[in-house]
């Protein structure tokens, strides 16, 4: 299509004006076009000429959004390091250490400085003598006097000579007085002053002469070479390091005609390190820099473990926050885990987990969430999981169901407080795990029924509250199900499918009902970790992994591309992870290091706590572990009821079932009546049997309505199921 044809159709085209570098667009309306199109090639374009780059006209904008954006541009009123006591202390400590270092550096070199001064003192004495002679004989005025003589200006010359004679006379007297005073002081000092004063005077004279004799280009003091550990981070270092990454757009920006790299905020201390905020050149993303963290560290001449580039999600993808620690993260002294020696928790509050690069504590709110932990082997998954579980154990209300399918006994400290516990990649451990999951699966419906049956003001958001969790009659206490090396279970031919079904339901519905599922895996692929499970985990902790697929499987799709890359961790970064879902932005966090003996001590405390509150249950009090029972609920109900009972209350049947088969229904026996009703309602729902208000008489013979069912519905459901192939 030619330009003319385009115009005929009312389209805008861009033309290049010959003389000026201004691009214009020509535009015609259909009417103009209909008046006749210019001939092709005649070079005349008709129509209105409009600038392609329109003059700036204020656009109607979202004022509030603009104000919010501008607010973000403000510098913080209080510097970052002054916002927390811990950070301020860190900075002051650093400053004190730095000053101490510089002083010590110079103090150690005092002999060298003294020798330098002594060496320079003859030159200084000579300079002093020359200056004195020049001053005494007024040699500065000599050129002027000579000029007057040369021009034969007798009067002027005489005046200048007279002035010079007077001056020399006065200076001679001054010098004489000075010399006599100095001689007297010298005699006095030699005769009467203590030796140290004599040495001090001599020292001051030599030092003074040494200072005067210093060459202009050789300062007396050496530069205090600040050790690498506390070396200041400067803008030049950051630019040099970015320039060494081999990213062409960065090199262009740093080149002669480049538009440069900008720092939206000054480089400042932030905790035990420096923080630089950088706007990368147009088109360069933080993800590209993260990929080259080792090169960046090399460019900065810092250890890899000190260099932590991060994206800023609320800004554009080119905004980089570079935090450079004084020490490698793994070597930095980690503050003690706050619960190591004392304290208990409520899972409705965040529990301490570890520290970020700056040493700031990182806590995780486990309630209403699920956790997925992943990494390649030996990078600290189980340690991370154990920290969380020890915290859970310190909530006396939390029921722990722990399955460590690796078999090394890393969670064995917690066995004494666990409702269910099994270890090993054995069939029995997997069977126990599936049986426990099946119970929790049934518990989902029971809890939902209980919450649904509560007055609205007690559960306004249809979820467990701390008050509801504390009421034992409701059975809504926090329940923590943890499976370490969960790939052993999900990839198992016999148990995998069933386990995945339960885990998927628990991960989706559990959070609101006070059930927390924590999974750890070293093989985060789709066979070992069903998509429905990995997609629904709210909190994700990813220690070192080798590829972006594993990274995204654990942290969520697109995370690697967004710069949240656990691939950047190195061999030595044990226990260090990217964590998503615990704060607004992903954070780098190192889990608290709790070794075996420390974990034992904490678990002992958890045991005492539970003994005091009377919340030990299950295997912790010697009950049998979860069994995969092959019983038939419908058949059992038909057994414990008679054909004459056409309508029967749930709670009555639950009591009979618990008597009839304690191993299968025993756990219902201790529930309150309402909870018994809810438990059976939930189970019957699975078979399509409805419960409804049913008239009956209680143990005292009093007539009332309670939840029950028609026995014939049970018989029908049983028959239907039997009829199925
Ligand atoms: N927070 C931490 N700080 C320092 N070192 C840690 C930390 N967490 C774990 N480690 C070290 O990492 C090692 C491996 O930890 P862990 O057993 O938890 O790894 P894992 O990923 O569970 O391994 P596997 O896949 O074999 O089960 C530990 O022996 C410990 O020395």
UniProtKB/TrEMBL annotation:
The chain crosses the membrane at residues 172-190. The lineage of its organism: Bacteria, Bacillati, Actinomycetota, Actinomycetes, Streptosporangiales. Residues 348-552 form the FtsK domain. Gene3D superfamilies: P-loop containing nucleotide triphosphate hydrolases (3.40.50.300). The keyword Membrane applies. It comes from Nonomuraea composti. Pfam families: DUF3631, FtsK_SpoIIIE. InterPro entries: DUF3631, FtsK/SpoIIIE/SftA, FtsK_dom, P-loop_NTPase. This is DUF3631 domain-containing protein. It comes from the Bacteria. Keywords: ATP-binding, Membrane, Nucleotide-binding, Transmembrane, Transmembrane helix. ATP binds at residues 375-382. SUPFAM superfamilies: P-loop containing nucleoside triphosphate hydrolases. The keyword Cell membrane does not apply. Residues 1-42, 695-725 are annotated as: Disordered.
């Amino acid at each position: 299509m030619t330009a003319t044809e385009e115009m005929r159709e009312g389209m805008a085209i861009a033309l290049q004006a010959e003389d000026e570098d201004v691009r214009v667009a020509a535009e015609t309306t259909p009417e103009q076009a209909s008046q006749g199109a210019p001939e092709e090639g005649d070079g005349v374009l008709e129509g209105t000429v409009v600038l392609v780059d329109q003059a700036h006209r204020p656009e109607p904008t979202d004022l509030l959004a603009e104000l919010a954006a501008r607010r973000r541009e403000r510098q913080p009123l209080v510097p970052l390091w002054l916002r927390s006591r811990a950070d301020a202390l860190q900075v002051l400590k650093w400053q004190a250490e730095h000053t101490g270092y510089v002083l010590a550096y110079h103090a150690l070199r005092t002999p060298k400085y003294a020798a330098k001064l002594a060496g320079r003192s003859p030159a200084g004495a000579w300079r002093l003598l020359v200056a004195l002679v020049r001053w005494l004989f007024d040699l500065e005025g000599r050129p002027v006097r000579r000029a007057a003589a040369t021009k034969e200006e007798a009067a002027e010359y005489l005046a200048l000579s007279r002035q010079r004679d007077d001056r020399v006379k006065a200076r001679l007297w001054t010098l004489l007085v000075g010399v006599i005073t100095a001689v007297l002081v010298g005699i006095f000092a030699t005769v009467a002053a203590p030796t140290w004063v004599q040495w001090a005077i001599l020292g001051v004279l030599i030092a003074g002469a040494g200072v005067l004799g210093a060459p202009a280009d050789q300062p007396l003091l050496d530069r205090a070479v600040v050790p690498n550990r506390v070396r200041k981070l400067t803008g030049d270092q950051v630019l040099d390091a970015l320039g060494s990454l081999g990213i062409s757009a960065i090199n262009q920006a740093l080149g002669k005609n480049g538009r440069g790299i900008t720092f939206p905020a000054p480089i400042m201390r932030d905790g035990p390190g420096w923080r630089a905020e950088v706007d990368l050149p147009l088109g360069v993303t933080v993800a590209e820099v993260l990929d080259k963290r080792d090169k960046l560290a090399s460019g900065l001449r810092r250890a890899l473990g000190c260099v932590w580039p991060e994206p800023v999600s609320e800004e554009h993808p080119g905004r980089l926050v570079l935090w450079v620690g004084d020490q490698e993260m793994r070597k930095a002294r980690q503050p003690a885990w706050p619960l190591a020696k004392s304290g208990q928790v409520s899972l409705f509050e965040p529990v301490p987990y570890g520290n970020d690069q700056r040493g700031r504590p990182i806590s995780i709110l486990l309630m209403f969430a699920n956790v997925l932990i992943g990494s390649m082997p030996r990078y600290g998954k189980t340690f991370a999981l154990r920290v969380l579980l020890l915290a859970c154990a310190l909530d006396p209300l939390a029921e722990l169901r722990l399955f460590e399918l690796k078999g090394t006994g890393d969670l064995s400290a917690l066995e004494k407080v666990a409702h269910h516990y099994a270890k090993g990649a054995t069939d029995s451990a997997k069977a126990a795990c599936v049986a426990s999951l099946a119970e929790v699966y049934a518990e989902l419906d029971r809890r939902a029924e209980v919450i649904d049956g509560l007055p609205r003001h007690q559960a306004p958001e249809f979820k467990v509250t701390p008050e509801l969790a504390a009421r034992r009659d409701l059975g809504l206490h926090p329940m923590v199900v943890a499976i370490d090396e969960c790939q052993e279970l999900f990839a198992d031919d016999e148990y995998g499918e069933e386990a995945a079904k339960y885990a998927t339901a628990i991960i989706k519905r559990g959070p609101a009902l006070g059930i927390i599922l924590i999974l750890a895996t070293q093989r985060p692929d789709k066979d070992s970790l069903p998509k429905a499970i990995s997609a629904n985990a709210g909190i994700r902790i990813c220690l070192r992994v080798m590829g972006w697929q594993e990274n995204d499987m654990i942290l969520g799709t697109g995370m690697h591309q967004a710069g949240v890359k656990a691939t950047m961790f190195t061999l030595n970064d044990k226990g260090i992870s990217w964590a998503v879902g615990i704060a607004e932005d992903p954070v780098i966090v190192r889990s608290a290091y709790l070794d075996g003996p420390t974990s034992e001590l904490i678990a002992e405390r958890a045991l005492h706590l539970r003994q005091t509150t009377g919340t030990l249950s299950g295997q912790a009090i010697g009950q049998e572990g979860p069994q995969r029972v092959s019983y038939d609920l419908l058949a059992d109900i038909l057994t414990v009821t008679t054909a004459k009972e056409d309508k029967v209350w749930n709670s009555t049947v639950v009591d009979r079932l618990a008597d009839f088969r304690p191993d299968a229904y025993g756990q219902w026996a201790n529930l309150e009546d309402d909870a018994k009703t809810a438990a059976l309602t939930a189970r019957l729902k699975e078979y399509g049997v409805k419960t409804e208000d049913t008239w009956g008489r209680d143990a005292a013979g009093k007539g009332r309505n309670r939840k029950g069912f028609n026995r014939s519905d049970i018989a029908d459901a049983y028959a239907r199921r039997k009829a199925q192939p």
